[in-house]
Amino acid sequence: MFKIRKCFLFVVLLVIPIVLFCTIPVKAGGSESENNSIENTVKGKVLNVRSSSNANSEEKNVMEKQQKLKVEVLEGKHRGEKVDIIHTIQPSKPDNIEFKTGDELFLSISEDNSGKINEASVYQVVRQNHLFHLLVFFMISIVAIGGIKGFKSLITLAITCLIIVKVFLPLILQGYNPILVSTAVCIAITVISLIIVSGFNRKTTASILGTSSGVIIAGAIAYIYINFTSVSGVGTEDAQLLMDSLLKGTLNFKGILFGSILIGTLGAVMDISMSIASTMNELRENNPRISSRNIVKAGMSVGRDTIGTMTTTLILAYISSAVFLVLGYMVSKSSFADIINQDMIASDVIKTFASSIGLIFTIPITVFAYWVLDKR
């Protein structure tokens, strides 16, 4: 009974700060334009679509649809006010959304010196409600099927997200070495997650050693080949946008690429390491007389069985992130050599194989770590 109360208190103390963090409201930012008007982003609701029409775009010779929207502002000092907006739907743009009555959206409004709205436009669609429903469904599913283990997994997931958002990213932005930061963060996430899920025991210790070693090996391989291939780390539009921002010249983009490889590797490596350690521990618990040789053999067998699926998982994950880019090169009839030598593609290749190599070496390291601990 005491253990149950202790666990419950631990969970409550852990969940409260996470809930408080997730429920902190994000204030909409405001900026002042060159004509001294103040711009704000607020939520609005479409009252009705007054009319729709098609307009021909002379630049790209495509049909653009226009909607005249009557929108009510739902927040801020202009709450309750209604504005008329002409929304242009462009097929080639990411915001090619056709609104209907009742839809919620974010408005970008500008005020004159007297504080009245002088212009409004569609900034973005409100998606957070649907995403929250998806999150709730995920949480219910993992707890319903995983039980207490699933609940612990949710706790570790929340802690992992907090560490990345509150520690990893801020330290990177402050100019700290991404290689050291990402390595320390990955090890910290590994230790915290595995101890919460499985407690502090021989199995957990072996899994921590195997995971940490595998991630470090993946990082070493990535570091070597990032320098060999002269990959810049700014091959994506997101990286280029960051480079062009106020942070230009203050960030180590190669180091950030290194950190992204480590974090991307961590989940798969942790999974396979724990699977091996759990199997070896179950054999020892159920049959105390079993020889160390048979335990090692079983651990290697599990590792070999899962190595194919896990490496495939990593490869597919990285390939999926480059599908649109590769399709673009194929449409332009670029050669294979041209595609593979592109900065972004080369980065993904390094991510894929460095992560897979780290995953492969995790198997014997975890087996060896458990064997050493089992001998004591």
TrEMBL record:
PANTHER family: MEMBRANE PROTEIN (PTHR41771:SF1), MEMBRANE PROTEIN-RELATED (PTHR41771)
Record bears the keyword Ribonucleoprotein: no
Top-level taxonomic group: Bacteria
InterPro entries in the cross-refs: YibE_F
Protein's name in the database: YibE/F family protein
Transmembrane stretches, start-end: 131-148, 155-173, 179-200, 207-226, 256-277, 314-332, 352-373
The keyword Membrane appears for this protein: yes
Keywords: Membrane, Transmembrane, Transmembrane helix
Coiled coil spans: none
Species of origin: Clostridium lapidicellarium
